[in-house]
Amino acid sequence: MTDTLTTERTIHPARNVLGTLRLPGDKSISHRYALLAGLAEGVSRFQNFSTGADCASSLACVGQLGAKVTHSGDTVEVEGKAGRLTPPGSVLDCGNSGSTMRMLAGLLAPQEGAFTLEGDASLNRRPMERVRKPLLEMGANITLLDGHAPVQIQGAKLRGIAYTTPVPSAQVKTALLFAGLQAEGTTTVNEAVRTRDHGELALRAFGAEIRRSGDSVSVTGGQKLRGLEATVPGDMSSAAFFLCAAALFPESSLLFDQLGMNPTRATLLDVLTVLGAKVHVLNLEEKHGELIGSVQLSAPAQGLGTIDISGALTAQLIDELPVLAAIAPYTRGGIRIRDARELRVKESDRIALVATNLRAMGATVEEFEDGLDVPGGQRLHGGVVDSDGDHRIAMAFAVAALRADGDTLVVGADAAAVSFPEFYSLLEQVAER
Ligand code: S3P
What pLDDT score was predicted for residue 1? Predict the structure, then answer.
């Protein structure tokens, strides 16, 4: 539906990264708040809602489903549909957003009427069977085209199931909880690897009872949601680009305040610490179940060390792996990533694209089916890199470009707006030249 953006941007090398930033709201939380606000009874009001195009897709879909969505200043207001969404009679455009498509599938499967979900060319290539399969077990009526969008839903009565996710996915877990909230009986999702828990926390914030026991999370159907007033914490996955950038410069110092510090999202801070960065967390508080705090980072004088990322660590860092791989040549010992096959079915094939772009900047890198080996101690030159329309690839290589010799041209740079439209202006703010 929407086309890949092709705008180019030149990134000049930097001498240092310095400053204080407050970031727009977390993308994962914003999606969940938008979708649940549409279903809830009453008015929800959100401050610091994500400014990315992805969350705008979720809000637009909720609007198409009959909720009244208004923006005034920094506030997004959603007047919910009290449990009963209206079939829109036209396609629900999920844009580039896998979260919107998968979570909406769960939200709509138990509703009355027919719904069709589509996305842009990238989203229409991404796997949807992972959400269809468990929803079918619950009694849903969903068809796909060869495992992909369009997702066609004919609303049906659902019953609770117990389901173990074969691939760690917070989107699938959340979709099942959203469906389970409207199903008969109890729905339990068991995950071998703990994924981000914003879905569970958001459901609780809207008034639902959610039970966690060990690796399982359960919801019983028939519960009503009420509108929520909340400030969305700053997005840790957006902060990741700046944290990694700052970690490259021995004199750097970067402070974030009001940053989302949910432990299922903050693993990057541990990784940067292992790599030798000094990370301080201050002023932690909890709001609507989500931890928020300030983070201060400065880089080690001797440069970053080395780390192997695999297993559960890979799943916890899934959105941060492109930028970690992009800075890996500048570490002393390199970074090895495994068990990351999922990266091949994100907004792009992130393993292939990271390898291609690193090579375009003169790096040596070895690609594996499920990961990458990026040796350390390398010097990169500026080059032409291509985001292929993938926001995280565009931002990862803008960061790599800061330490290269010479300028780097990022093709498809504006893809960053999918999650983080302010990225380049904030980068200019903190990069010292
Ligand atoms: C997300 C979950 C992850 C992540 C994505 C956002 C979420 O995807 O990569 O950017 O908000 O639940 P998967 O569920 O496919 O792992």
Answer: 40
